[in-house]
Structures are given as structure tokens and as C-alpha cells.
Amino acid sequence: MPSAEMTPASTHEPEPVRRTTAEPVQPTREDEVAAAGSELIGGPLGRRALLGTSWWTPVRVVALVAIGMFALGLVQKAPCYDGAWFFGASSQYTHACYSDIPHLYQGRGFADHLVPYFDRLSGDMDYLEYPVLTGVFMEVASWLTPHSGSIQHQEQWYWFVNAGLLMVCAAVIAVCVARTQRRRPWDGLLVALAPAFALTATINWDLLAVALTAAAMLMWSRSRPAAFGVLLGLATAAKLYPLFLLAPLLVLCWRAGKWREFFQAVGGALGAWLVVNLPVMLFAFDGWSKFYRFSHDRGVDFGSFWLIWAQNSSHPPTTDFVNTVASVLVVLCFLGIGALTFTAPRRPRFAQLAFLMIAAFVLTNKVYSPQYVLWLVPLAVLARPKWRDFLIWQACEVAYFLGIWLYLAYTTSGDAHKGLPTHGYHWAIVLHLLGTLYLCAVVVRDILMPERDVVRRSGDDDPSGGVLDGAEDVFVLGAAAHPPRHAAHPDGPPVDWGRPEHVTPEGRSL
């Protein structure tokens, strides 16, 4: 967007950081990739653009861009709702426009007005295999769908209704991320412009849980642990993964001594989860438990390193073996995150550990579906709002998005073999696993070397941390327990290097 003060087009070097505490962070003046990309719309923002006198506030811009990118994702699905979902199994893969939504309209009984969890389905799937709040979302979309005309017409309408509801979720996610770290609203553009986000948004119903999780992160950043817990409990009632955010919160609150806030969050999460689940659990236990039984019993599936092992072994791992080892790996990752938290020279930011925990879960899981990238995008933006690293990861995810559909096209096209053979798909899996591992590596580096953290280099401590932001440490281990003394006061008390007042605006320790 043009402004009165623009960086010359001949250079994209970020300007030195010089700001007051209240001044918003300008990515186009600090991030070389953002600065280069801004030349397409007139160059980096100038100071007059930050006065707040225009209707075009950062949050509004982020929301509109998110809706625009979501709409482009809908356009990308055009070949499917024009017929590929209904008349050709392989064409929905060759056009990379597959979605579970229209197929499950009839396959899970919504076309026949069956009540999820209470009414038994015909065929191999006896009950709906989704958590309760997601089932409610699916049922509400069914109520809004015209139950007239051909089944293809109804499935098409069901997808459109769900797409409209999911668009609202996408806008909520982008706005929550833009508002979570107060001085970094423009980071929400990373969510809004994420190509993998737009491509995978309507594959399934994951955006509901992601929106609730993003809202929970916003509440925690505003020091409202009970509201955080309620939203996290609702998110867990829609998808299992948000539950894992309590693990990094535990070790962070332990290091900072914030036990009261942690138990408020746990109590809110448990209460909200029970309010949603208990009625169904009591009156339709078999239907309610289907999600958990299905998650336990399903074999290795798309996107995971387990699938590569299974498809290249004469003795593939059994489901019980994978369940056990995957669980052990998640526990080991959590223990590693705990050790990192207690020994880091400065207490890690909540968003950093949240991203690492969810990434550990999806990397070790027996399935890493293409839409799981939606779980990681908001957390990745809060953990590492650096355009270069984010785009490297997104490129890997887009490559995998194309790879899985081309592989399915290959397996469903008969003797024609249109698409990507098995070994090519395995390379696509490796690429998207490496992309996620790369982002994990730079986040861990930021924790071990806080001067490299782009958020803290801007002068903040933990803007998504709420009560943890600027808090004193009460429990640390290793070198973190013995910080160096200030050179000017060798006999004085140890300096707490985790406190923001001991860091310059450029992020260098005093």
C-alpha cells in the first residue's frame, strides 16, 4: 500500500528497529521478504500509514484478505462441484479438488435425516466417526441444505453451505492471530495468504476446531485463563489435537509459578468439554465412543512416515505396534519440550511451545492428512512470524497437497496410471515432513538463542503469553538457574535475562 514514506525500490534491506513500546511492528520494515513482496502494492508502509485514521486497519485488511484467499480456494474446487465429485473417481484427484464434505452427506446419513451418534448407519461405518461438536456442525449444515432434487444436487448444496460456515471460521482465525500479539497485527497476513490454508480449508471440518483454538490463544494472551480453558475445551470437543496445548502450558506455568491460572484453564477446558460431550455420552455411548474407537483401530494412513514403512516392508507394522510407539514418541517429545522449557536461557514463548507440541503430534501420528496443516498455520505464525521460513514450509505443504491427489489419481485410474506412482508419493511425504521439521528446528533455535527470535527482537517478551508475559521465573534448571551477573555490578544480584527490561529494542542483551 503506498505511503508518504516508502523504502526505495532498489533495496529491500529492513530498516533498523527504533520504536516505542506501543508502536506497532511493521514487517515490511523488518523482514526482507515482506519488504520485497510489498513492492507489488507500492512498497513498505510508511509511518503515516500507522496513525490509525483510516478505516483500513490491519485487522480489517487481514480479515478481508483471508476471505479473498478462501474464495480463491473455492474457485480451485470448481472442477469438482461441476461434476468430478459425482461422475468420476479419478478426475477429482487429477484436478486436486477432492473434499470429504459432499461424499459424507449421504455416506453418514445426513441425506436420510439420521441423527448423528443416536441413529445407526448402514454399511461398515456404524456411527459417525467425528467428535461431538464437529458432528453438531455437520448436522446444522444439513438443516440448512435443501433436501430436494437429486442427491448430487443436495451434495453440492451441502458443500456450499459448509463452505460458507467454514469461511466464517477462516476469518475468525485470521483476526484472532492478528489480535493475539498486540503489536504485530500484520502477522495475520501470513495466515490469510497461506496457500496451503486456502487449498485445504474445505477438505474436511477442521477449521471449526482451529478457529476455537485461535480464539483460545487470543484469550490467554489477554490474561483470561478461564475463557481460554472454555474455548480450548470446545475446540477439543471438535477435534482432539487442541488438548495437547495444555502440555506446554503446564511446563511454562511451572517455570513461572502460575499454578492458579493453569488450573483455571484446565477447569474451564474440562467443564466445556463435558457440557458438550456428557449428554451424548450418557444417552448414546456407542455413537459417542465411535470417534475414539475409530482413531484407535484405524491403520497407518496417508502422509505419515509409518505409511512409507508399511508400503516398503514385507512385514509392515501392526496397528497396535504403531499406536504404542506413536504414543511413546509423543510422550518423549513432551519430555523434550519440558527439558527445553526449564533449561532455556529465557522462558520460551507460549506460541513457540504450542507449535512444537502440535507439530510433534502430527509428525509422529499414524496419519498426517493434508488438512492437518490447518492446525499448524496459526501456531506457526505466532511462533515464528518470519516470511522466508513460513513460505519454505508452505511450499513443502503445497507440494504434498498436489502429491497426494496425484497418487490417488494413479491408484484409481486403472491401467491408465495417470498420476504419481507410489515411490513418487513417498518423496512427497518426505518433503512435507522435512518442511515441518525445518520450521520446528528454527523455533527451537529461537528458544535456545532468544536474540534470534523475531518477536523478542522487536522488544517484546511473550505477547501471546498473557500472565506469563514478563513474569518472574521460580523454577529453572541447568545454566538457566545461574544467569551471569551484570558486568557493571559484579557483587550485585544476578540479572534475570528473561526479563524484557534487560533487552534492547534490537533484541541484544544488555
TrEMBL record:
Keywords: Cell membrane, Membrane, Transferase, Transmembrane, Transmembrane helix
Keyword Transport included in the entry's annotation: no
TM region(s), chain numbering: 55-75, 157-178, 190-220, 226-253, 265-285, 321-344, 350-369, 390-410, 425-448
Comp. bias regions, Basic and acidic residues: 12-21, 498-510
Any one Pfam family match given in the protein's UniProt record, by short name: GT87
Major localization class: membrane
Keyword Nuclease: no
InterPro entries for this protein: GT87, UCP010361
Compartment(s): Cell membrane
Membrane topology category: Multi-pass membrane protein
Region Disordered, annotated ranges: 1-30, 483-510
Family: Belongs to the glycosyltransferase 87 family.
Official protein name in the record: Glycosyltransferase 87 family protein
Organism: Streptomyces albidocamelliae
